[in-house]
Amino acid sequence: MRGGSVTGLLAARGARTHRKAWAAVFAALVLTSVLLGTFALVVTSAALGHARVERYAAADLVVSGDQHTRYTAKPWGSEPETVTAGLTERVRVPERALDVVRGVPGVRAAVADRVFPVGLAGTAATGRPWDAARLAPYALRDGREPRRAGEVVVGGDARAVGARVVLRVGGADRTYRVVGLADGPRAAVYFSGGEARRLAGHAGTVDAVGVVAEEGVGTGALYGRVRQAVDEAGLRGAVTRAKGDAAGLRVLTGDGRGAAEDLTAAPARSTLLQILGAVAGTMTLIAVLVVSSTIVQALRQRGHELALLRAVGATPRQLRGAVGREVGRVAVAAAVVGAVLAVPAQLGLLALLQARGAVPSGLVLPLPPWLAAAPLVTAGVTVLVARLSALIACGRTAKVRPAQALRASPPGARRRVTGLVLLGLGVSSAGTATLQHGQAAAAAASAAAVLMVIACAVLGPWIATGAMRVLGGPMRRYGGPGGRLAAANCTAAATRLGAAITPVVLVTAFALVQLAAGATLTHEARAQARDAARADVVVRADGGLPRGALERIRAVPGVSGATEVVHSTVVLAGKEAGEPKLERLPVLGVTPQRLTRTLDPDVRKGDLAGLRPGTVALSTDRARALDAGPGSTVRLRFGDGAEGRLRVAAVYGRGLGTGDFLLARDEVLRHTSGTGRARVLVATDGAPRTLRAVGAAVPGARVDRDAAAVRDAVRVEPEDQALGEVVTGAAVGAIGAFTVIAVLSTLTLIGVGRRPELTLLRRAGAARSQLRRMLHAEAAAVAVTGLVVGTAVALIPLLAFSLAFAGALPYLPAAQAALIVGVVAATALAGTVPPVRRVLRGRYPTG
Predict the structure, then answer these.
(1) Mean of the per-residue pLDDT values for the chain?
(2) Is the pLDDT of residue 128 over 90?
(3) Of the candidates 579, 570, 582, which has an alpha carbon nearest to the alpha carbon of residue 244?
(4) Where is the ABC3 transporter permease C-terminal domain (predicted)?
(5) Contacts of 622 (CB under 8 A, 6+ apart)
(6) pLDDT over 60 at 406, yes or no
(7) Number of helices and strands in the chain (H, E)
C-alpha cells in the first residue's frame, strides 16, 4: 500500500473507532471557533465604528475643531513616536471660519451651529439656533421659525403653538413663547440666531460649521476647496495647545461628520478596541491551552495503539499523517459550526454592550456583509491549532524506535526545570508589578498570571504527586476501601491526575483574576467615595443651577457647608516603560470654601483652601508617579485640549474614590462644553425644616438625601468601567464554558481509558459502591487540588495588582467565589462517574 493510502485508512479507522473521544475535542473546537470568530467580528466592527450622523445628515461637509490631542516623544533607543487621545469637551471653531467657508466657490450655505444645555420642565434638553436645523434637515411641522429673542421652536408635539414655557439656560430662568413645532428629537429647543449666540456664550466661536454644496458640486471637489481655504486662512481651534499638538480645524465628510455631534463616540471606540484586544488575547490563550490539552489527552489515551502501529512497521510520517488527518476532519467540521455561530454571538455581545450603556448610543458599530468572512479566517486558525496540537501530542511516539514506543515515558527533568523557570518568572513579574504604576503594573500582573498558569500545566504531574501526599492520608483514613483505592490510583497515575488538574487550575486562576481585579478596584473606590462624602444632601438641576444658588444654600440656617462639584476629564502626557503615553482621566472641579465639611479626600500634605484657578490637588499615587508635591508644577491638558501649568496645592489619599486630580470649579468650567452638569453637596443638621429650606432656596432643583446619590456625586468613575464590566462578564462566561468542556472532556477521556482497569477491579472483587466512592474521592481530589492551586496562582498576581492600584488586599464577592467552586465541583463529579457507568452496572462486568 502506498503511504497516502495507509495514512487515509488509519485516519478513517481511528475516527470511527474513537468517536466518543473526539466528541470532547469537537465541543472544545466549536467553542474555540465561536470565541475567536466573535472577537474577530466585534473588534473589526469597532475598528470600523463611527459616531452616528443625525444633526448633520443634510450637510455635505462639517468644519469642526480637532477633537484629538497628540504627544510626541522618543522611546529608548528609537525614533520619536506620536500617540493620540480623544477629547471629550468641545474644541470650538473661530467664528470667522464662517466667512472663510462662505467665500469658497461651490458653497451654497455655511451654517453656524451652537449647542448648549437647556432645562425644560425638569428634564434635560439641547438648545440650538434654528438655522442649524436645516443641516439635519428638521422641518417645521406647525407654526413658524423663531424671529425674536423670546420665541422658540420645540421638537416633537408635546406642546401647542402659542404655549408659554420656562427654560433654564446657564443658571437663569426665562419664559419663552412656542412659535413652532419641528421634526426631530423631542428634547430639542431652537432659538433665534441672536438669542442662541447669547445663551451659548463663548463669544467669537461656534461649535461647528455645516456646509451645503451648490447643485452639481461633488463632495470630493468641495472638500479640497474648503480644506485649502481653511489652511490658507491659518484657522485653528480656539484654545492654546501644548507644543507639538496641532490644533488645526477638521473638514469632515461622510460618516466622519458624526464626530462633530457626539464627542464621546471616538474616545469610547478607542477604549472599546483596547479592552476587546486585551480580553481577546487572554481568551485566545485560554482557548489554545484548552484545545491543546484536550487533543493531547485524547491521543494520550491511545498511546499504546499508536505505539503498536510503530512497532508493526508504521513510519513516523505515516503516523503523523494519520493523526493529522484524523484531527483535521474533526477540526474542520467543528470550526465551520463555530464560524456560523459566531455571527449571532457577536450580535448578542453588541446588544449586551448597548443595553448596559457600555458604549454611547451615538456610536455606530457596523456589520458590513463582507465582515461575515472574518469567522472563516478564525476557523482556519482553529484548524491550524488543532493540527499543531496533534503533531505535538504524537511527537514522541512518532520519533522513537518501534521497540521503544510501547514503553511509558515518565516526565523528565527538562520538563521540571522548564516549569520551575516559568514559575520563577511569573513570581518575579508579580513582584515587578508592585513597583509599577498604571498600565505597566497591570501588564506585569497579567504576564505573571499567564506565566504561572503555563508553569502549572508543565508541572502538572509533580503538582498531582504533591497533592496526593497531602490528601492521600485523609483519603485512606476516612474514605474506607474506596478512599484507599483512590489514593493508590492517584499516586500511581500522577501524570493522569495532573492532566485532569491542569484545566481546573487554568480556569480557576483566570476566572479569579478577571473577576477579582475589577471587583477590588470597584469595592475600594466605593469605600473611599463613601468615606470622602461628608455631605448628606446633593442638589442638582437640569440646565444648570440658578445664579447665586450656592450662596443661597450656604445662607440657609442649619447648613454647615455647601460645595459645587463639576465632573470633567483631563489628559496627562508622559512616558511609561520608555514609550510615550496619553492618559485620559476623570476629574472633579470643586469650590474650595469649607470643602472638608462636605468632601474629605484625606489631605496628607498642603491645604485645599489654596485650591483656585491655576492650582491642582493630587492623589498620593499620582503625586508619587509624577514626583510632585505641594509647590511643584504639573502639566495637564484639559478636556478641550488646552494645556495648563498648574501648581500643586495639596496631596490627598482617597484617589480611587475622588480621582487623581482635584481642580477649582472655575478652572474646569472654562474648558467644558456646558454648565448643566454641576451639583451641590450640602452638609446639614438633618432637620426636616433645613431640608425644606434648601429646596426652597433653589427653585426647580432636585434635593436628594439618598446616600448612594451623594456618593455618586463625589465618586469619579473611569469612563471604561461599564464597558470593562460587560466585557469581563462575557469573558468569564466564556471561561466558564471552557471550564465545563475542558474538565468534562479531560475526565471523560481519562474515564474511557480506565474502563479496562475498573473492569479488572470488579472481577478482582471490588464492589460497585467501593468503586463509586473511589471515583468520587478522585473527583474531589481533582476539584480541591485544582481550586487550591488555581487560587494560589491567581492570588500572587492579584496581590501585586491590588497593592499597586488600590493599596488593599484583593476582594471578590462571596457569591462569585461560590459560583466558581460550585461549577468546578459539579463538573469534576459529572466527568468522573458517567463515562464508566457501564462498568459499574450489573453483577458481572463485561468490559
Answers:
(1) 81
(2) yes
(3) 582
(4) 279-392, 734-840
(5) 628, 655, 660, 661
(6) no
(7) 27, 27
User: pLDDT tens for residues 681-696?
Assistant: 998 888 888 888 888 8
First to last CA, the chain: 34
Max avg pLDDT among 24-33, 197-206, 485-494 = 197-206
C-alpha cell at 110: 455655511
Q: Coil, strand, or helix at residue 271? A: helix
Dihedral of alpha carbons 780, 781, 786, 789, sign = positive
pLDDT of 3 over the 60 cut: no
Distance CA 716, CA 718 (A): 7
Dihedral, CA atoms, 264, 266, 272, 274, nearest 10 degrees? -130
Contact 323, 306 (CB under 8 A): yes
Which pLDDT score is estimated for 1? 44
Q: Which residue has the higher pLDDT, 83 or 774?
A: 83
Report which of residues 41 and 511 the model is more confident about.
41
Strand (E) or helix (H) holding 723: helix 721-753
| Cis peptide bond prior to 137, omega within 30° of 0 | yes
CA dihedral 415, 419, 425, 429 (to 10 degrees): 150
Give the integer Cα–Cα distance in Å for 638 and 569: 7
pTM for the structure as a whole: 0.79
Indicate the length of the chain as a whole number. 847
Q: In the predicted model, what is the mean pLDDT of residues 352-363? A: 79
Per-residue pLDDT, 11: 46
CA distances from 733 to 40, 514, 522, 726 (A): 18, 11, 20, 11
Q: What percent of the chain clears pLDDT 70, i.e. is strictly above it? A: 81
Residue 110 and residue 95: Cα distance in Å, rounded? 11
Kindly state the cell numbers that stand for 261. 455631534
A 10 A CB-CB count for 207 gives: 22
Cell of 145: 421659525
* Geometric angle at alpha carbon 60, from 57 and 66, rounded to 5°: 90
What is the spatial distance between Cα 663 and Cα 567, in angstroms, rounded to a whole number? 10
Please report, for the chain, the start and end positions of each structural domain, with discontinuous segments joined by +.
1-52+262-407, 61-78+89-257, 537-704
The single-letter DSSP state of residue 86 is: E
Beta-strand pair 188-191/123-129: parallel
